[in-house]
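Worked example 2:
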Amino acid sequence: MKTSVSKKLTALVLACAVWFGMSATMGTVTANAAENEAMKAGDRVKMGVASNEYVGTPEWTVLDVVDDNADGTPDRAYLVSTYLWKDKTGVDTMIFGNGGSSKWDGSNAKAWCEKFYTNVLKKSELVATTDINDPQDGNFPAVESKGNKVFFLSHADVMNEKYFKDDAARKAEVPGEGKGMYWTRTPGSVPGRVVIIQESGKKFAGNNVIDNRVKMRPAMYLDLHSDACVQRTEAEGAVTWEYDVENTAHTYAEPTYTWAEDYSACSAATTCTKCGAALNEKGKIFSEVTKEATAAEEGNTCYTATFENEAFGPQVKNVPIAKLPAKPITKPANKGLKNGGKYTAAGASYKVISAKACTVALVKAKNVKSVSVPATVKISGKSCKVVQVKAKAFTGKKIRKVTVGKNVKKLDKYAFAKSKVTTVVLKTKALKKSTVKGCFKSSKVKTVQVKVGTKKQNKKMVKTYKKAFTKKNCGKKVKVK
């Protein structure tokens, strides 16, 4: 069992309850109990529920705080019962073994401590599990034991001036009955005997182990990393920390939420109504334009803030987008189609392939979430078939889905390059293996859906397109269905 601690502890600051925060990709959680407060040797701890089976008071004295991994942060507090305890029945429970043995494992003393952990401490997870590993102490044998929650002090601990400066400091009493002797866990030099501490605070190694005049003074380690509600009070220079072992959860007040002016961030804050511990978290922000603005109507952007900690709920802000300025109505001049001419229609750009045949290629699609390449488009008063899609036609940041019209015969190499499109719907039966070569290179397309003709015709085209849209031919592995 580790009882030593760095001398640098006086410079450390430990929150009375260390909370484990949660974090998201764009969010940060922080939680602090009362700042600049540290549990230290000499403080008192109120923890436990008085049991009908014992006479005693669940109050503890902090002997030390322990930095197990020497990282500058205390991990455990070493506590000993401020008062002595005894069985209410008055029976002899402190037999340390059978046949004159004084071993800790298998003793009634250890069994008493385990019962105390269950009945008084309610098997609290605040109590750290520790192993006993006492070396030989003069004429007193070594003691080892695994997995202890509650135990007695060793002879070395009781005599350590760091914990008890003199005999007077070692004295303890049963509430209402006065001072008394108490057991240690250290075997006496004579088999069947155990070291005890007398009423005067001095040690005595020869006491009979079946003497019910000797009382119990349990000890334990308190886990300082647990997320537990603890109330700190100070009166006349004495500090007391109080835990409720039956309900360690914080009780948080109604949270407050603060949005940034541009809605790019939202922070949440609350405090525990019992211990005053503060809990803060920066939310993860998602935004979506739920309605595009037009010259006639305002649009809307929905901002949503989500939080990892269950103390905070999601927050939503709907922010209007100003109407677009009205555009003057002008009648476009009908200059007629020209081979190679570029035109804009319905927010998309086209290039004339053949003015005589009225065929065009899509050069740049409109930047919307779902794009449809039309079968025909009206340019300069003429209905033109859209038969081709040019390279990098879908680089708009919003585009995720593209539906290809029935007249399209060719998807150029790199047609979907540098786009965020993941799904392509084909309504054309005119594509061939040679006319889709390299079309998905440098793209994010995952799925090609075939939607042509009757169910039977569609099934046939799926088979055909599976041969055309291979990784080797179109530049990317996709699922055709």
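Residues 250 and 306 are 21 Å apart (CA to CA). Residues 39-243 form one domain.
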